[in-house]
Structure formats: structure tokens, C-alpha cells
Amino acid sequence: MVFTTPFWLLSLLLPAQPVQNTLPPPAPKVVWSAARPLTWDDFRARPNTDRLAALTSSSIDATIGCVDFHFSGKVQATFAPSESWVRNATQASPALLRHEQLHFDLTEVHARMLRQKLSLVKFDCLHLQPAFNNLTKVAFLAWQRDEARYDQETNHGLNAPKQAEWEQKTRQRLEQFAAFAE
């Protein structure tokens, strides 16, 4: 039995529309890696609001299952290039890119926290889905609150001292949960 539960941040669910054969396939998701920071080339969607200079669409993808009544799970922080955008990459500042990278880094922090929780909980394979859903619901809400607080406190990266504070705090949190990195 395998269940897949993706979480999306800053995504909008729209009714299904026919896809023309002339559209290129969506860019594959980028799995978070300290060795692979985001670049403006990763932001491939068209801007969908006048309020923001850029938008990062990241998610925590979790796959769980039981084999011979032994629980296994995989959690990844991913970035969706086809849902992420920058208004004008040629004029976008390095500070804005750092702000967007930190959104992705926060996603990884919360993915690590979920990996930690999964390593500590003993799941009953006969009742796996309800227990997993409860755990991920709490994890998702914590991640969502953290992301909103980040944008609010940094004014979407425009408050440089607060941005620096969040960068330092997020580096510390990544180190704190290093044992739960993939």
C-alpha cells in the first residue's frame, strides 16, 4: 500500500482545461539540494499578479507505504519551475533571488521536520492513512505559518535587516535538522 500526499505552497487550483499539443511539457520539479541553489532560469511561469516581483512555488512531497507491515516513507522539498515566476529576470536583484531561495530553504526545513516526525512515530499499517493525514496536516500548517511570517516580517524581502535575520535563522534550522537531510 502506497499513498502519495503532495503539499503546494502558493499554488492555485484551476479547473482542468484542454492542453494544446504545441505547449512544451512542464519543467520537472527541482528537488532541494544545498549544492543546487535556484537561478532565475528556474522561474519559468508567467507572472500572474501585479503585486509581487517574483513567486516561488514549492511543495513538500510525501510518499508513504507499508510492505509486510513495515512502514516506509519518503519526504522531499521540491520547487515547481512551471508554477514559479519572476516579473523581469534581467532587472531582478540578487537580494530578491535570495529571498525566493529562502522560501525553498524553509520548505526543506519543514520537510526535515516531517522526516524527523516520521522517524519517531510508530504507524499501524492497518490504519496508516488517518494517522499520516493527521501528522501531515499539523506539519503543513506549521510550514504555511512560517512562510507567511517570513514574508510579513521581511516585507517580501524589502526589509534587509529582517531578511538577513531570517537567512541566519534558516541556516541554523537546516543545521539543526541536518540528521534528517536526504
Secondary structure layout plus pairing:
Layout: E1 2-8, E2 30-31, E3 54-55, E4 58-67, E5 70-79, E6 85-86, H1 94-120, H2 128-154, H3 160-176
SSE ordering: EEEEEEHHH
Helical content, roughly? 25-40%
Number of domains: 1
What's the rounded overall pLDDT mean?
A: 87
Number of helices: 3
The backbone outline, from C-alpha atoms, is globular
Radius of gyration: 18 Å
Q: Could you give the count of β-strands?
A: 6
Commentary on this structure:
- There is one protein chain.
- By secondary structure, the chain is an alpha+beta fold.
- It has one domain.
- Helix content is 39%, strand content 18%.
- The protein has 3 helices and 6 strands; from the N terminus they run E-E-E-E-E-E-H-H-H.
- The strands form 2 sheets. It has a 4-stranded antiparallel β-sheet, covered by helices on one side. A two-stranded antiparallel sheet has the order 3-6.
Task: Give the key terms.
two-stranded antiparallel ribbon, four-stranded antiparallel beta sheet, 6 strands, 182 residues, alpha+beta
